[in-house]
Design a protein that fits this description.
7 helices
């Protein structure tokens, strides 16, 4: 509010034109702008007030706070980097299917296929042995009959020879079945070993994932703490900026040190002076209403 507008509103009051709430609202808005301007000015010129005795406390406290804030900001950057890496690690682990043990799965598949072949071979051997056993039992019965008749020596000899051949074939099949069974047992042990390795690798991956989740939780907690610290520093620094800006803008007319400190911000200083006058006029009008 300018002096001329103040006079206009002052005259309007004499005619009962009362706008007290408007005047108080304008004053509040202008006060907010003034405080913003004071903080802005203080932030821009604080390095220039080292030699102003009245602002010595604010200046050196700012120096201290800025160093502490820079330290916390660096810690925050490191923590954020660690958190990003932990998220990437977690995403990588979640994105894995069977990659860590794909080689073992392929080996197990090969062994299982071999086991199927061995099982078919064993079934064939058992079926042959069963047929030989059935033939042997039939020929054995024939031998017993011929021995009782005792008049067909030639047939009896042929029968005895055939029984020996069947025994030999049966023994060979039995040996083959034993060899196949041993191979099946060996392959099954390999399967057990592979399953144990897969289980161990899965366990290791779960542990890594657990570590990544724990790291993410710890990093998030640390980030929250560091951000809260930065917030406290920013609040304290803004208060000091405001005090510097307020003092310099009010004393620039009477103190050469303040004038020098704010030389590059004369335009802002003029705006602040105008805001103070406007706030004063609005309060006067509100009090007269």
């Amino acid at each position: 509010m300018t002096p001329s507008r103040y006079l206009i509103f002052r005259i309007a009051l004499t005619f009962g034109y009362d706008r007290k709430n408007v005047r108080m609202g304008d004053a509040a808005g202008e006060m907010h702008l003034l405080k913003e301007a004071e903080a802005h000015l203080g932030e821009r010129i604080w390095k220039n007030v080292e030699d102003i005795e009245e602002l010595s406390m604010e200046y050196w406290n700012l120096r201290k706070l800025i160093k502490e804030r820079d330290r916390v900001a660096k810690e925050l950057d490191v923590c954020q980097k660690n958190l990003t890496e932990a998220h990437e690690q977690r995403s990588g682990l979640l994105g894995m299917s069977n990659e860590p043990f794909q080689d073992l799965l392929e080996e197990r598949k090969t062994i299982l296929n071999h086991l199927e072949d061995l099982a078919r071979k064993r079934d064939i051997i058992v079926a042959k042995a069963r047929d030989i056993r059935r033939n042997y039992d039939g020929i054995k019965a024939k031998q017993e009959v011929l021995e009782k008749e005792n008049d067909r020596k030639h047939d009896l000899e042929k029968t005895s020879t055939r029984l020996l051949e069947l025994k030999k074939s049966f023994a060979e099949l039995k040996e083959q079945r034993t060899n196949v069974a041993e191979k099946i047992s060996a392959e099954e042990k390999k399967i057990d070993g592979i399953e144990a390795q897969i289980k161990e690798r899965k366990k290791a991956r779960r542990e890594k994932a657990s570590e990544a989740f724990q790291h993410i939780g710890d990093s998030n907690q640390e980030l929250s703490t560091l951000r809260a610290e930065l917030g406290v520093f920013d609040t304290q620094m803004r208060q000091l900026y405001s005090e510097i800006g307020r003092y310099v803008s009010r004393q620039s007319a009477s103190q050469s040190e303040c004038q020098r400190a704010a030389t590059e911000h004369r335009g802002l200083m003029e705006v602040m002076a105008a805001l103070r006058k406007s706030i004063k006029y609005n309060h006067k009008l509100a009090d007269l209403a």
